[in-house]
Fold this sequence. Notes:
By secondary structure, this protein is an alpha/beta fold. The protein has a single domain (26-325), classed as D-Maltodextrin-Binding Protein, domain 2. Helix content is 49%, strand content 20%. It contains 13 helices and nine strands. The chain has helices at residues 3-18, 40-55, 73-82, 114-133, 173-181, 194-200, 210-216, 219-222, 241-246, 249-283, 294-300, 302-312, 314-325, and strands at 27-32, 60-65, 87-90, 137-152, 166-169, 185-188, 205-208, 224-240, 287-289. The strands form two sheets. Strands 3, 4, 5, 6, 7, 8 and 9 form a seven-stranded mixed sheet that branches. The radius of gyration is 23 Å and the shape is globular.
Amino acid sequence: MTFRSIAALVAGALTLLAYAPAGSAQTVLKLGEIYAATHSNGMAVQRFAELVAKKTNDAVKVEVFLDSTLGSEREIAESLVAGTIDLAPSGLSGIGRFFPDAQVLELPYLYRDLRHMERVAKAVAPDVDALFRAKGVKNIGYLFLGPRSLASRKDIHKLEDMKGLRLRVPESPLYVGLARALGAVPTPVAFPEVYSALETGVANAAEGEPATLWTTKWYEPTKSVSLTKHIWHYRFFAMNGKRFDSLPADQQKALLDAAAETMEYQAGLQEEYNRKALEDIKAAGVKIVETQGLDAFADALVDFNTGFARKLGPGAEALLAKVRSVQ
């Protein structure tokens, strides 16, 4: 082969590369998560990344950053809205800050169980996505947490035991109000700093589902877990809206399908993880308290729930009414 023919082949190859469609390059999406790899939510986002790769034939890669590597829940949510992070499962102390009406979905003693939550998620999905879209965010699905209970230096046998408890809460008005309504002293602390706050006595209790209490080891400085079961709640599977819209339709569908499958996968983990977590916590020498009179807890929060929604406005009240209509 002559030098001239080799040069022609190289030139032809370069021409083909120059006109290759831009979409042929792999799209990389950054996902931030506050939970550890062993938590059900951490497991879920890793499964999501695998599903997206499979459904797009590796055209889309989701890079997963676990265990608050990219910051607190609030910081991750702010980065998602700004567009420096593409995806983030996030609750009220994170993405919920941008969507006040959605806070009513996390009110205490609102859901009977996980199955009820799943039915509500389907019912309110259009309402939630409309709220998010109005501020440049796409909600592609849900993850689940709950029921939240207390890791506490003090056993909580009944409602009266909550009085004066320095309760760590997420940086959210809902949780601050919840603590006050139960007679506790709300102590907002960012998620990565909770263990040290319990260890040093800044807070003497923290709340979360059993799997969270186990993976964070919050039970270690408290030596007691009281099953108040006060909140089931969603984590919105949020995505930067511009980033979602920039993807071709087939990749958008792949993300939505992967999120739906991830939701089912994580819901399947939830109850088993909580059961196992309580067994492991007990085996670690921690006292498990079956809190009595949970109806009294719920009754103490009726006025709080109603007032919270009313303060947010008609949109929040309508959303809460829709939740309550789901059997």
